[in-house]
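User: Can you help me understand a structure? I only have the sequence.
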Amino acid sequence: MIIIREAREADLPALLAIYNHVILHTTAVYTYEPQTMEARKAWYADKVSAAYPVYVAEEAGTVVGFSSYGPFRAWPAYKYTIENSVYVTEEQRGKGIGKLLIQPLIASAKAKGFHAIIAGIDAANDASIRLHASLGFVEVAHFKQVGFKFGRWLDLKFMELLLETPASPVEG
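Assistant: Let's start by predicting it. Here is the structure, written out as tokens:
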């Protein structure tokens, strides 16, 4: 049975292992070098200090995936838009865990008054595209050959989910 819960600092070694496997073996993350534990600790501390959620999927006491969101862009007018991330261990992909991990992100974003969630997805990642579409995300952009990894050019798709938010957000 899969349990979704908020991440704890004790989960960081598992999150690091999942993320580094994704870096080294997939195009889900457009970077080349594995992260260090220090970098993952800093990432987690930043999430906690900004009150951005980090969720884990746990099965029989083992973390098998995680999700989070953070700012889409740094400029003030983007403050109602976030970008989500979801990663599942290779052996657990295709079992619905990604959907379980994104649902609390959507609920959290609604509760915090965000208006749009953006998912940046490698255009060849059909599973992630289908997953996001099943939750109401729609494709809003397709960037051609913007990344290069594993000896080939990569296309990036942006998918977006618009949330019900107050009619008059606050500026400033």
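Now, to help you interpret it: The CA atoms of residues 21 and 90 lie 8 Å apart. Strands lie at 2-6, 54-59, 62-71, 81-88, 116-122, 138-149, 152-162. Let me know which part you'd like to focus on.
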